[in-house]
């Protein structure tokens, strides 16, 4: 399976004071960590942002969230179009704010997707819809879902049908999500060991 990857970085990050993808952890920005992770699994990596100036000056390949679709679903839509346009079979989605994704993240999702349209990660009984593998065919189902008036990433996964792949919740949870200064401080303690 030929996979592209998209890093979802379009959120405002209000709970952490904005600019979340550029926040530093262990001397490296969250975005740089996510890019490094994504490049383990794909040679076609893009970063989905809400507007071009969101990341400042960067040489990373960016795609703009679909403007009429709020939230991470807008980034997924842009990422699926990027994957299709680069001749890929599927799109690996990962957020900029989960710096400890497991090394077997992509291989396990790829193994689990089978003939379905989506495979999503979970840990400790919690689904992580931003962490998934999506076949390009999901893009064809997007207009039908949007026509229902819904915009949830989890709702879209339910609409296309998905398989769940569960990882142990740790400690630490490999899907630790950094949303606040306290989360970032906890993650810094983990990095320092």
Task: Describe the model.
- There is one protein chain.
- By secondary structure, the chain is α/β, with parallel strands linked by helices.
- It is 34% helix and 23% strand.
- The chain has six helices and nine strands; from the N terminus they run βββαββαβαββααβα.
- A hairpin with a 2-residue loop joins strand 2 and strand 3 (28-29).
- Helix 4 (138-147) crosses helix 5 (153-160).
- The relative contact order is 0.18.
Question: What is the number of helices?
Answer: 6
Mean pLDDT equals 93
Number of separate strands: 9
Q: Please outline the major beta sheet.
A: 7 strands, mixed
Report how far apart the termini are. 36 Å
Task: Write down the Rg.
Answer: 16 Å
Portion in helices: 25-40%
The coarse overall form would be globular
What fraction of residues sit in β-strands?
15-25%
Provide the succession of SSEs. Answer: EEEHEEHEHEEHHEH
How would the blueprint of this fold be written?
Blueprint lengths: L2 E6 L15 E2 L2 E2 H12 L3 E5 L12 E3 L7 H14 L4 E6 L9 H9 L4 E6 L2 E10 L2 H10 L5 H8 L2 E5 L13 H12 L1
Parallel strand pairs: 1-4, 1-6, 4-5, 7-9
Antiparallel strand pairs: 2-3, 6-8, 7-8
Summarize the structure.
With 193 residues, this protein is α/β, with parallel strands linked by helices. It is built from 6 helices and 9 strands.
